[in-house]
Design goal:
Number of strands of chain B: 2
Distance between the termini of chain A: 45 Å
Order of helices and strands of chain A: HHHHHEEEHHHHHH
Largest interface: A-B, 58 and 59 residues
Strand content of chain B: under 5%
Strand order of the largest sheet of chain B: 1-2
Number of domains of chain A: 2
Strand order of the largest sheet of chain A: 2-1-3
Distance between the termini of chain B: 37 Å
Order of helices and strands of chain B: HHEEHHHHHHHHHHHHHHHHHHH
Helix content of chain A: 55-70%
Helix content of chain B: over 70%
Oligomer: heterodimer
Radius of gyration of chain A: 25 Å
Strand content of chain A: 5-15%
Largest sheet of chain B: 2 strands, antiparallel
Shape of chain B: globular
Number of strands of chain A: 3
Number of helices of chain A: 11
Shape of chain A: extended
Structural class of chain B: mainly alpha
């Protein structure tokens, strides 16, 4: 059986190499890929959509419908992680707290009252990690700059490499950095699982909803030109603005899904409290 | 309104999936009605499209974002895709309606996520069917696969392992398809199917196109579980929950067969597939191997649902073999079988869901005495069984008739023999089940939801499945007859136009 597997891999690899030989040269200006559709995009993008970055306009306008589903794929990944990993709430028999100034750990049984939102008491459980003051402070310093950079990446997708996916990942990474440098409980207290989930759906909804709005306004789905009366611009600029709107949606979705998946993976589906 | 239907058919489920995903965290009760509503709208849209296409005879094109074909993405609804769209939406809707109780019981707190993935999966299949763009097809294939893995993953104890297997193989299949699309793009510079179909006849001797054809088909074969790359299917489908199995088992393989048909007929053209490459002969033999293997393996199973999964593999062989016979009869049979097999499989998996709900197991022996306690369910089950065997006037007979006639016309007697062999095996399989459930004494142990069942003496007490499960199930089993009676019309009015005129 192993031999058959190896032979198959060998055969596939050989075929790939043999047929790759027949490719046009890399960067060949006369190859079909360079002569069939590309000239249209290079010549018309600016006139059609007023976006200097051709990649962005192809991604979010000419083939924006694909990108909408790519965003949906990310949401589906978040949903899948939640669906497969999330565990129901477990009855907690006892809770541990540490009295920070003295370092004494106390155990509270079922009926006992737990100290809530106290500065001196810290809850200890499987998600508790000892906080290192250096790491914590460094991260606190970094996170705002990471977030601002992420917003720049989102907003500047029209002119430079970037856009919703990249910006969203960076935004998500900022929150995950916070979760790593502090702990999951603090992070969940700031951005709950519920908000992460709803924001994920809302991000894709901004994208699909923009498309549906164009449909309601009497044009084809995702034809941002239809938004011109609402945005108060001409049809070409409306396309440019439409791209920005959907990029924001993508960024929101990607960020929240990253956070949501991190919550479920890092705590093996337990998180802080059950569903 | 009619012109926007191709978009609405997929956009409504997509938006509903997003709303349901959020509603799962806000108001769980709202999820189910929204999902059912969206799928109903989608079904009505698909039906309207089919009617329109049949009446006008012209394919409907929809341009997303307003860009014309090679630049933008277009949806093309022709006879073939409209027919498959109706099947997809109908199967998804009926299965969802019938499995409300199982979903409530099995996914208590995760109902929102389940329903959202369910609707997303359906939307993915709808898009794969409707699209006229080779890359867009891949994106939607990703949606359908990813949500499919999640839906299957939460089932019986061994479900995660089976799903992991499925995930590896499914990803390989999807990647092969994508690789093929990439090769085609390198060779032609286009992703639009109609545009590709216009360019490709001029480059029939290109090695890149040949490899694209080989690797796209190989990827699809993995996805549809053709022998010998079928390994993921039995585990994945038999371990999953009834609600997920009832959606995924009837649709995934059938839609993949549809894509194969679409690619061979409309992308690479009949001339390239059957005359230039002469791919038919080899692939018919692969299909024969699949049929024989699937049938024999089904014979070896004692678990009812596992047996069904091997029958699915055999049926994939029917469709692939029939299509690659290369004549009009065979292709009609293959396409008709896409419809019929989806309905038959749905019916059998719904029956499996009801048995599981009532008896708590899927062992063959535990069907004992069910004729007495659940006469209506068993009546529907007998119809489904007869249809799989191919007894007239159920729909299974008619597609098999076309396939057999096609086989004889093409001189592929081995394929005809394999079909008849498989029908005989199916007869053995199902009559054994009928015998167990009709003649064997009532089993005493019942550990389903209904604890009091099983003490009514000789099974005289009727304890049917809940109405919400029974009514859709009976509806589907009656559909088997309706489809059978109208199969002549389906072939002459719809399938006839789906096959290019050059095929005799």
């Amino acid at each position: 059986m192993k031999l058959i597997g190896k032979l198959t891999i060998f055969l596939c690899g050989t075929l790939l190499i043999v047929f790759a030989n027949k490719f046009p040269d890399f960067g060949d200006p006369h190859s079909p890929a360079a002569t069939h559709l590309s000239p249209y995009f290079i010549e018309h993008t600016m006139a059609d959509t007023s976006v200097p970055n051709i990649v962005t306009s192809v991604l979010a306008d000419y083939r924006g419908y694909d990108t909408m589903f790519e965003t949906t794929v990310i949401l589906a990944a978040g949903l899948a992680c939640f669906f497969l990993l999330r565990l129901p709430e477990e009855e907690e028999k006892e809770i541990y707290f540490r009295h920070v100034p003295t370092g004494v750990t106390i155990r509270i049984e079922e009926c006992g009252a737990a100290p809530e939102d106290s500065e001196v008491f810290q809850r200890i459980d499987s998600q508790w990690v000892p906080c290192d003051i250096i790491i914590r402070s460094t991260s606190r310093l970094l996170i705002p700059f990471i977030q601002i950079f992420a917003l720049y990446v989102v907003a500047h997708g029209h002119h430079s490499p970037g856009g919703g996916f990249q910006g969203g990942v960076v935004l998500g990474a900022a929150v995950i950095l916070f979760a790593i440098s502090h702990n999951l409980r603090t992070t969940v207290a700031k951005i709950g699982e519920k908000s992460a989930a709803i924001m994920s759906a809302a991000g894709v909804f901004i994208y699909a909803g923009t498309g549906a709005l164009c449909l309601v306004l009497g044009e084809s789905f995702l034809n941002y030109g239809a938004l011109a009366p609402i945005l108060g611009t001409d049809r070409v600029m409306a396309r440019s603005h439409g791209i920005l709107i959907v990029e924001i949606g993508v960024a929101l979705a990607v960020m929240s899904v990253m956070i949501w998946i991190y919550y479920n993976l890092s705590s093996a589906g337990k998180q802080d409290e059950g569903l | 309104m009619v012109n926007t239907l191709p978009a609405l058919v997929i956009i409504v489920p997509l938006l509903a999936a997003l709303v349901v995903a959020a509603a799962g965290f806000i108001n769980k009760r709202a999820c189910f009605p929204i999902a059912v509503g969206a799928l109903s709208v989608s079904f009505l849209g698909a039906a309207a499209l089919l009617v329109r296409v049949v009446n006008t005879g012209v394919a409907i094109e929809y341009r997303f974002a307003g860009w014309a074909a090679p630049m933008g993405i277009v949806y093309v609804i022709d006879h073939l895709s409209a027919l498959v769209l109706v099947v997809i939406t109908a199967v998804a809707l009926v299965n969802l309606v019938s499995s409300k109780q199982t979903i409530d019981r099995e996914f208590k707190d995760k109902e929102g996520a389940f329903l959202s993935l369910y609707v997303l999966f359906t939307a993915g299949l709808i898009g794969m069917t409707a699209t006229g763009d080779a890359f867009n097809l891949y994106v939607l294939l990703e949606i359908a696969s990813l949500s499919g893995y999640a839906l299957i993953g939460l089932g019986k104890t061994r479900a995660p392992l089976a799903t992991l297997n499925y995930l590896f193989l499914g990803t390989i299949g999807a990647t092969f398809y994508l690789l093929g699309v990439g090769y085609l793009y390198i060779a032609t510079g286009s992703l639009n199917m109609a545009d590709l179909a216009a360019i490709l006849p001029g480059m029939q001797n290109s090695g890149i196109v040949l490899f694209a054809f080989i690797i796209m088909l190989s990827g699809l074969f993995v996805k549809m579980a053709l022998f010998p790359v079928h390994g993921w299917l039995p585990g994945a489908y038999s371990q999953s929950s009834s609600a997920a199995a009832g959606l995924i088992a009837p649709l995934t393989t059938k839609v993949t067969v549809y894509i194969m048909v679409r690619i061979c007929l409309n992308l690479f053209s009949v001339d390239y597939t059957f005359h230039h490459l002469n791919a038919g002969d080899i692939l018919v033999w692969v299909a024969i191997a699949t049929i024989v293997f699937g049938s024999l393996s089904a014979l070896a199973q004692t678990d009812y649902k596992k047996m069904l999964t091997y029958i699915i593999i055999a049926e994939v062989g029917y469709m692939v073999g029939g299509f690659f016979l290369g004549n009009r009869m065979g292709m009609s049979g293959a396409i008709l079988h896409i419809v019929n097999d989806a309905v038959m499989t749905l019916c059998l998996f719904m029956a499996a869901g009801i048995f599981l709900w009532k008896t708590g197991t899927e062992e063959r022996g535990d069907l004992k005495g069910l004729f007495g306690s659940m006469p209506f369910t068993m009546a529907g089950f007998v119809l489904a069984g007869l249809s799989i065997i191919g007894v007239p006037p159920t729909c299974g007979f008619f597609s098999k008739w076309y396939l057999v006639s096609g086989g004889i016309a093409a001189g592929q007697y081995a394929f005809v023999a394999a079909l008849i062999f498989s029908s005989l095996i199916n007869a053995v399989l199902f009559f054994r089940l009928f015998e167990i459930s009709y003649f064997e004494p009532f089993a005493d142990h019942h550990h389903g939801s209904d604890k009091s069942a099983g003490h009514g003496g000789a099974g005289a007490v009727i304890r049917e499945a809940p109405m919400a499960m029974l009514v859709p199930f009976l509806f589907v089993s009656i559909m088997l007859l309706v489809l059978g009676i109208y199969s002549g019309r389906i072939v002459t009015n719809i399938i006839h136009f789906a096959i290019p005129a050059g095929v005799i």
